Structures are given as C-alpha cells and as structure tokens.
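Need a sequence for this fold. Nothing fancy.
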C-alpha cells in the first residue's frame, strides 16, 4: 500500500513508491554524540582549515534583505555599534512601504501610545467616558439562550432559621452549688537548696576575655576620635 495518491504518483513518476514495510523510523542519537574527543577535534580542525565546498544553494522562495545577521551583529566591536546607534538617531534608515497581505483591523489606540500620554489627558478621557459613555452596537450572539436555568423538577428550600421567627427566650441561670469549706494545705518549710559546685567552662573564659578586649579597643578608638576632634577644633580656633 503506497503512501501517495494517484495524483502524487503522476507528479513524481521517477521516484519509486515507498512501501510501509520499507519505511522505518530511526530514533537513534546522531553519530556525533558517541564520537571520541580526538576524532571530533581533528574534524573541527579540518573544517576550519579546509572547509567543505558545498554546491550553490537553490532557493525557490523570494529572497528578503534582513540586513546584518544576528551572529555578525554580535561579533562587531562596541564602537561600531555606538556609531551605528548615533547614525540611526540622526538619520534613520528609510524603509520601503510595508506590504500587508492580511486585512487590517482597527484596534483603536495602542497600549504604548496610551502610556505615553500625560496624566491630565487620561483624566479628561475618564471623565468623558463617565459623563458621555460610548454607545456600542448590540452584541451579536450566536448561542441560543437557555429557557429554564433551573429545571422544574428541582425544589429550592430555604434554611429553617430564615423561615421560623420566634421571640428570644432567655433561660434562668443555674443555681450555684454550695461551695465546700476550703482547707489550706500546710506546707513544710522548704530548706534552701545546697549550692552546686560549678565546673569552670573553658568557652566561657574565652568569651569573657574577648569581651574585655573588645571594650578596651572601643575605649581606644573613642579616645583617638576625641583627640582628633579636639585637634581639629584647636586648629580652627587657634590664631595663626
């Protein structure tokens, strides 16, 4: 069974028809993934020194000038891009008119143009839309309206708390039971706890030493700052 129709077979008479048994799908990875490092290095050097000469490309579509490609643009030095940007600002390139093949649709004002307006223009536009709103044509609906949103077999019953209306009833307070006589427990005098022998912690000693040294450094820096302030004041006040 061939994959082409009779018209396709008549269009390509020289090519043989491919049978379903002969058509195989190759899902294996390319050979370059399993190629050793030295072999890929030699192939890259050969392509760099003596690149392969390919036949001229036959284009069936209309060529389009897109300017400088992205790879060439990234390889250009920075000063050329600066000069190009300055030239585009001073004398922009005059492009040919755009050829549109689709039917243009009026979408109104673009979002970028709306954001570029000043604040008072948007304020006036909002006031105008509030006072004199725009009249739009009736909406053309293609769907049919649903006659019965709720079927007739359904029954909607409200909650009983919304239907029953009765006066509020306040029940009397429960009588308080007679409290039994309270007896205070007699606690025996507690003896003071015996002092526990404290084991000297080496980390605590190191921490105390660091704190003491930090205080000394703080006093030294404060003294130096005060001396510099006094020296500056003395130089400014002392007559020359």
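Here you go.
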């Amino acid at each position: 069974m061939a994959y082409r129709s009779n018209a396709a077979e008549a269009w390509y008479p020289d090519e043989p028809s491919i049978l379903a048994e002969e058509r195989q799908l190759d899902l294996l990875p390319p050979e370059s993934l399993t190629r050793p490092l030295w072999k890929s290095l030699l192939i890259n050097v050969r392509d760099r020194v003596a690149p392969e000469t390919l036949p001229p490309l036959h284009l069936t579509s209309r060529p389009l000038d897109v300017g400088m490609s992205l790879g060439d643009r990234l390889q250009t030095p920075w000063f050329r891009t600066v000069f190009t940007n300055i030239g585009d600002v001073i004398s922009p390139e005059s492009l040919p008119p755009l050829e549109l093949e689709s039917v243009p649709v009026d979408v109104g004002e673009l979002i970028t143009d709306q954001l570029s307006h000043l604040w008072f223009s948007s304020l006036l536009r909002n006031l105008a839309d509030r006072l004199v709103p725009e009249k739009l044509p009736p909406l053309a609906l293609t769907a049919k309206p649903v006659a019965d949103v709720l079927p007739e077999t359904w029954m909607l019953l409200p909650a009983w708390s919304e239907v029953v209306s009765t006066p509020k009833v306040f029940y009397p307070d429960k009588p308080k039971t007679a409290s039994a006589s309270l007896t205070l427990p007699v606690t025996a005098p507690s003896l003071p706890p015996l002092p526990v022998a404290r084991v000297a912690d080496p980390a605590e000693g190191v921490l105390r030493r660091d704190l003491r040294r930090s205080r000394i450094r703080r006093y030294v820096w404060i003294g130096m700052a005060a001396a510099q302030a006094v020296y500056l004041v003395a130089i400014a006040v002392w007559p020359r």
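For context: The chain has a mean pLDDT of 77.
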